Amino acid sequence: MTDSGADPTADGGGGDGSENDPAPTVDPEETVDLLQKLVRIPSPYFEEAEITGFVHDWLAERGHDPEYHRVSEPDITEYEGDNVLARLEGSDPDAPTLLLNAHVDTVKLVEDWDEDPCSGRIEDGKLYGQGACDMKGGLAAVMVAFDALSGVELAGDVLLTAVVDEEGPYGLGTDRLIRDGYTDDCDAAVVTEPGPVLAQSEMENPALLLGARGRVFYDIEVRGKAAHGSQPEKGVNAVVDAGRLAATLDDMETGDHPKLGSGSVCPLKIEGGSQTLSVPERARLMVDRHVVVGETKETARADAERVVDELGLESEVDIGFREAPDPDIVYGPYVTDEGHPLVTALSEATRSVCGVDPAYGYFSSVGDFNYLGDRADLPTVILGPDGENIHGAGEFVYTDEVVEVADIVTEAAVRFCG
């Protein structure tokens, strides 16, 4: 977007607030101040109570009548938490409704920081802290954009969803939004995840990511035959066969897509064996696979079964998938059409705010946008401020990009909702 070392309190670039502007601009200083407050609240997934309370109170203080939306998963994770929702009601029930989605949680705090991982320190246009880029920058952007939109007469509704557990194993916050019907009346979605840093190809902001690969998680059981370790030829070593299978899966051909690129396979863990002088009779292999449009859970299973058949292992192999709270919890791939009205609105808003056309790209991994773009069948665009070191020590976000994303979302919502 603009120079990443620019003054974060400078004009956001969307106009001077005159009656000719298509939308109001956000306050840069307020936006960065909000971001800093969000980063200073530790919020690893499953530990979001403090930050959801902050988001709720911030919205309530501005008269937005937010609500808590309960998220409960008692069987596997025993998780209990709350999304925070708020809605701006438009004047025309037939006008489109726009969903703005951002997650409040981060990965677990990384130990390698050489400063407070939640410092919120600002230096050279960068704000540092765990989750600063992924994605409290995007959260701050949609919060101030939503607040700015309250001063505009909109035809369609705008629904803000600040969700929990995006970084956790199942994306329970957005999953629950879909299950409870909150996405049913929405027509399109913007998710303010950082885009370029995880795009399929090298790119810079301003950028609109119009789709993402999906993901399946193989959980494979390998059953061999125990024997004395001094006579391994009398047994079938499940750990050895699991290793052979992992290496072959690593080289397995995957699907290709003209927008999303190629799928990928990454063996993650082999577990098995523990007894001294015993040939391991059981092993468990866990493999991550990213898929493209046209590849499904069923085709992924068939691919792995074909690899097993071709290997001719002595062990018996069962191809399964990671346990999930519900079979519907699947990160499916999706692509949003470049000609969709939301993409048009975001492109025009980007030109207005940044003075250039946005780049179009596609996300290499998965997130809540997969649930929205695939499961909820919503045209979904990823637009977020960039930074570096996401999920690691030294994570930062560019403050000027947070402000610009807020201005783009504000103007695009006006254009899209009418």
UniProtKB/TrEMBL annotation:
Its cofactor is Zn(2+). Residues 1-10 have a biased composition (Low complexity). Residues 211-313 form the Peptidase M20 dimerisation domain. Residues 1-29 are annotated as: Disordered. Keywords: Hydrolase, Metal-binding, Zinc. InterPro entries: ArgE/DapE_CS, Bact_exopeptidase_dim_dom, Peptidase_M20, Peptidase_M20_dimer, Peptidase_M20A. Gene3D superfamilies: 3.30.70.360, Zn peptidases (3.40.630.10). PROSITE patterns: ARGE_DAPE_CPG2_1 (PS00758), ARGE_DAPE_CPG2_2 (PS00759). PANTHER family: ACETYLORNITHINE DEACETYLASE, PEPTIDASE M20 DIMERISATION DOMAIN-CONTAINING PROTEIN. Belongs to the peptidase M20A family. This is M20/M25/M40 family metallo-hydrolase. It comes from Halogeometricum luteum.
